[in-house]
Write a structure and sequence with these properties.
The chain is an alpha/beta fold. The chain folds into two domains: 94 residues, Nucleotidyltransferase, domain 5 (2-Layer Sandwich), CATH 3.30.420; 158 residues, ATPase, nucleotide binding domain (Nucleotidyltransferase, domain 5, 2-Layer Sandwich), CATH 3.30.420.40. The chain is built from nine helices and twelve strands. The strands form three sheets. A five-stranded mixed beta sheet has the order 3-2-1-4-5. A five-stranded mixed beta sheet has the order 8-7-6-11-12, sandwiched between helices. Helix 3 runs antiparallel to helix 6, helix 4 packs across helix 6 and helix 6 crosses helix 7. The longest helix is centred in the last third of the chain and has 26 residues.
Length: 272
Amino acid sequence: MIVGIDIGSTTTKAVIIEDGKLTRRIKTKAADAVTAASGAFEKIVLENGIDKNSIEKIKITGVGASKIKNNIFGIPTDRVNEIDAIGIGGMFLSGASNIIITNIGTGTVIIEAGDKGISHFGGTGVGGGTISGLAKKLLPNAGFCDILELAKAGNLSQVDLLLGDITDTGISFLSGETTAANFGKMLDTAGPPDIALGIINMVYQVIGVLSVFAARAKNTDRVIVTGNGSNNPIGQKILSGTITAMYGIQFIYPEYAEYTTAVGAGISELKL
């Protein structure tokens, strides 16, 4: 039995890998990397009634992994490169290889993974952290769940400048409903739902277009979406609706996609 732990900037995830299979998973939050790692380990062990003596190894990854200098609770603890963990986990959960993986967390990283290895294609600082950060100023007192709920009733034409606002005809393959400038209109009548939708739309449009460029550069028409941001239903609609309609790239969301990096760490010895 191996425990894989992904120590992120906001959320830490832990998974149990038994006989090469994902059997248990949890998420938690803590202020520092050491507390996050030890807390996630204790939580997954206690909640599932696991005997610590049955755990062969702990594999840690993520931005906080470098802060862990010693074994956790005396169990052999190894660090796994985060890029490798995303690539391994993405291939494992999707059942595919030679793929582009877009991992959406606080920011976004794009990985190429396949027969020739795993490499960091690129990424952007735009991600879940962007949504939360902008909302603090534009939608005070709104938590992340509040933002998603507000956005359901939002109208992009209240905040975004659309092509239809500036031309009577489409441009190239873009229709009049296509965003010409995110937040380029911002009417006085725009309310919190419109702003919430505008923020999410901007973030996922940026992520989507960058993913399209990566997919086209590698001659594929599929992108595997992982990380916490893969579960955002409005984000999924933007990627698999708007972006797919414009560019023909398919976005795929594996089961347990938000645990991809922790899974990749846990099975890294089997895959590397």
